[in-house]
Amino acid sequence: MTEMVHGAAPVSVGEPLLPKWWRTIDRWTLLCVCALFGIGLLLGFAASPPLADRNGLPPFFYVQKQAIFGAMAFVVLLGCSMLTPRQVRRFGVLAFVLVFIALCLLPVFGTNFGKGAVRWYSLGFGSFQPSEFLKPAFVILAAWLMAASQDLDGPPGRLISFCVTLGLVAILVLQPDYGQASLILFGWGVMYFIAGAPWLLLIGIAGAVVAGGVFAYNASEHVQRRIDGYLATDIDPNTQIGYAANAIREGGIFGVGVGEGEVKSYLPDAHTDFIIAVAAEEYGLVLVLLVVVLYAIVVLRALARLLRERDPFVRYAGAGLASVLGMQAMINVGVAARLLPTKGMTLPFVSYGGSSVIAAGITVGMLLALTRTRPQGRIEDLLRRRGG
């Protein structure tokens, strides 16, 4: 009956799941994600052997682990991409509850691995970082609340989502994890903007963010040191950003050659937060631009497909997932190029890390599910009906 009312194209009854999935999925996005992970493995062969040597492990130990993480992420991505929007909503809300509990228990059972911030659970065979999984789960929850607020006699979803956002930001800042807190706030802001937030409110929120940044600068010596280093005229060559800047400068357009880079031997986070510096040194600006273009394709194609959707939840959630993924990539590249202050943040699908790559797989999987071609999913049908 719904297809008859809205004039959507009929779907063949009993069509097998996989052929239907392949026909409706955004294959370009899937290809870009595979390319990003392939580039991550390629860079892992260069960046991880020095770390393995320092830890007394086989040279390609971390590459093998990343391949396992990638296989797990790809399975999760495919599974999430086959969900319906309703199933995505249910899965996201349930995941948010579980991850939120894990986040609250970090001060009791978590560890900092010597990095000063309690962000991980040590599992013996690996680690688990709840904040990585919090981002996609929060986006789904916030999108559901904002969409529900538009229903007749619906709940004050926008206000509730705002309160949840403030609570999460406060918890992350206490870790401290300003990077993930900024991503949460940014994703919520994008969704709220699409939902029709008043300009004055957005300006007020932006002012509050600036005030929060000033407070963090004055209250935290760690934040102050990083911002001062970013604003300094001269870069200390013995700092992470100094090594990264030198690697990018040495790499030039085409790089110094495969395996010839030196930054991987000096940077402790060359395989994670500064993986793009390894790419720039050994493969040059060409590979860096390719990585940037791949992320841009994923984000822009998602936003373009979402323009045809008339389901508010799908629009808000899809835009939130795409913006958070794109912003995280932009921050990582910007830090390495000294366009932004130093912030520990991985490059999705490229940096080493189980939590990072699996959470990115969930993010893109849900994004693919929301941007699949579906009956009644296009606003053109409704406009055509109204025009008739």
- Strand line-up across the major sheet: 1-2
- The helicity comes to 55-70%
Q: Biggest β-sheet, characterized?
A: 2 strands, antiparallel
Task: Note the run of SSEs as H and E.
Answer: HHHHHHEEHHHHHHHHHHH
Q: Terminal Cα separation, in Å?
A: 19 Å
Q: What's the rounded overall pLDDT mean?
A: 87
Please tell me what the overall shape is: globular
Write down how many β-strands occur, each being a DSSP E stretch of 2 or more residues: 2
Total number of distinct structural domains: 1
Structural class: mainly alpha
Structure commentary:
- It is globular, with a radius of gyration of 22 Å.
- 43% of the residues are buried.
- A two-stranded antiparallel ribbon has the order 1-2.
- It is mainly alpha-helical and 388 residues long.
- Helices cover 70% and strands 1% of the residues.
- The protein has helices spanning 2-6, 17-24, 27-54, 61-81, 85-104, 106-109, 130-148, 157-174, 178-194, 199-219, 221-231, 240-251, 263-266, 275-306, 312-336, 354-370, 379-387; strands at residues 121-122, 127-128.
- The chain has one domain (19-387).
Task: Detail the topology: elements first, then pairings.
Elements: H1 2-6, H2 17-24, H3 27-54, H4 61-81, H5 85-104, H6 106-109, E1 121-122, E2 127-128, H7 130-148, H8 157-174, H9 178-194, H10 199-219, H11 221-231, H12 240-251, H13 263-266, H14 275-306, H15 312-336, H16 354-370, H17 379-387
Antiparallel strand pairs: 1-2
Helix pairs in contact: 3-4, 3-14, 4-16, 5-7, 7-8, 7-9, 7-15, 7-16, 8-9, 9-15, 10-11, 12-14, 14-15, 15-16
